Amino acid sequence: MSRICAHLFVLVCLLALPSLAQAQDAAPTPSEETTMAETQALELLDSIADGIPSLRNSGNRIYLTSAVADLLWTTDERRARALFEMVTQDMVAATAALDPSDQQTYNNFDILQQRRRECLDRMARRDPELALAFLRATRLPARAIDTNQRTNETNLELYVAGLLAAKNPELAIKLGRDVLRKGVSYQVLTLLSQLSAKKELAQTFHREILDRLKTEDLSRSQDAADTAWNLLHSFQPPQANEDTYRELVELLANLLAASPSLPTRNSQNYYNQFQSLMPQLEKYAPARVPMLRQLFQNLKPAVDQNARMYRTLNELSQRGTVEEILALASGYGPEFHQQIYQQAAWKALGGGDPNRARQIVSEFVIDLGQRRQMLERLDNHLLWNSINEGKVAEARQLLTRVKSVEQQVQMLINLSMTVSNKGDKKQALDLLVEARTMLDSSAASSGKLTGQLQLAQAYASIDAPQSVALMQSIVALVNQLVAAAVVLDGFENRYLQEGEWMKPGYTSLGGLVNSIEQSLGQLALQDAEGARSLSDQLERPEIRLMAQLEIAQALIGKRNASFRANGRIGSGRLNKRGDK
């Protein structure tokens, strides 16, 4: 199917489906449980659905359509399934349209794969079998899949299989067997755990995993060996069949017995594994114990200086004193001194003596760069502690050591949130005013714009009108920046795909646009009308639709929270056409 045909297919299907507003007209009068948030979300979903057919970029259409379907599932499953089917068709067409001769193909492929995983997650939450059908329908031809992609496909199959384990364990284990035929990996153990409620099936799958491990050379395949060791500890009797478990113990005992012929650099690992296997050996293979014990007594490596130092340092950090930690430096070379002095400083700080911590760093750390870095870490730790505890005076004093205006603003905002959560709204607002004044006097930069956005987010829960006013100027500026980026598209960065703004944005401006969309969603919890009005001011349609999706998601979350608070989970209706 060509890209144009796919686009027309989506357009026809969307127009053929009854709109949410039409469904509302034909439905009974809303119940008392229908909230204002519900109504606002409903209107936004209608607006988004109406806007999707006008988009040219398949990634944007797929993202928005699957999100709307997910939001509608609990209240209009039939419509949601139709939307998910459209997503599948659009994804198949978009994948088929990838042009290997186009230098942008790999970027486009990465974006489509991200969209695919998002769709899979949304479908899997609703109907794992639907997700499995989507996964299979949208798979690339085998010739186009490299090793990493093949591993990713295997992991996705196991992810869906795990979700199916409770509802359809027979299908889940069938998927697991398909994966085992391709090779053994740690992810099959997750599926085994998810099948544990079905003891007989789980034991059968356990047997099949072991049989597959027996076909591997564990001394050469680290993944297979790691899977075997994890299987030993994660699935034991009485969950596991004792005879099968005994065979696994014997398999690992054979691996350990071959260790003298393996590289000596692995001897420490094998010694540790032998120690962890001893309880199982003594119970299930006692005849192997004397030989293995003698073998590893001879192979036991001497503890090197690094291991001894770190073990001692760890012990003193837990139970020793600052002076004992400092004394440790005399027994080791200078390459260990920074770790020792740093640990001594943190020990002093943890004991409530920040002055001693700073004195240790200033006196013992000779390298000026390391000294400055460690002092900054100590100050940041103290500052965050004072912020988290709402100690305003102490935090203000420590803020004088922070040189960056953007960092000072961020700290003030965090302090404001802590103070607000403690119930002191006036002081919280004063702190935000201080942060705002600092930003207003700073030069224009991406850091300043990010700080203004953080400030608007902070105001949202304390003074929503102020948040709206700040967002107003931010939206206007971002419109200008996006328009400029469109002109510059392709010179240094790529912002557009098929003439539309790409989501996710892999540039700093793209990240900022994403943050604005999310901020409007947060603002909607306090002022839905203000957030909607601001989203309407976003000039590019695709960005506007993404922002409105964030608002709709926030409002639906607010509605669900209201129902939970009132003990009415699932009783609300987003779509009045039919309740599930």
Question: What layout of secondary structure does this protein have?
Answer:
Layout: H1 3-16, H2 20-25, H3 36-51, H4 58-72, H5 77-96, H6 105-126, H7 128-137, H8 147-167, H9 169-182, H10 187-194, H11 199-214, H12 222-234, H13 242-257, H14 267-284, H15 289-299, H16 305-319, H17 322-327, H18 337-350, H19 354-364, H20 368-388, H21 392-399, H22 405-421, H23 425-440, H24 446-460, H25 464-488, E1 496-497, E2 500-501, H26 508-524, H27 528-536, H28 541-565
Antiparallel strand pairs: 1-2
Helix pairs in contact: 1-5, 3-28, 4-5, 4-6, 4-28, 5-6, 6-7, 7-8, 8-9, 8-10, 9-11, 11-13, 13-14, 14-15, 18-19, 19-20, 20-21, 20-22, 22-23, 22-24, 23-24, 24-25, 24-26, 25-26, 25-27, 26-27, 26-28, 27-28
Main-sheet strand order equals: 1-2
Oligomer: single chain
Could you say which overall geometry the principal axes of the C-alpha atoms support?
Answer: flat
> H/E element string?
HHHHHHHHHHHHHHHHHHHHHHHHHEEHHH
- Gyration radius, in Å: 30 Å
**What is the straight-line distance between the termini?**
34 Å
Average pLDDT, rounded to a whole number, is 84
Low-confidence stretches: 1-34, 567-580
Helix residue percentage: over 70%
Q: Please outline the major beta sheet.
A: 2 strands, antiparallel
Q: Strand percentage, roughly?
A: under 5%
Per DSSP E runs of 2 or more residues, the count of β-strands stands at 2
> How would you classify the helix and strand content by structural class?
mainly alpha
Task: Please count the helical segments.
Answer: 28
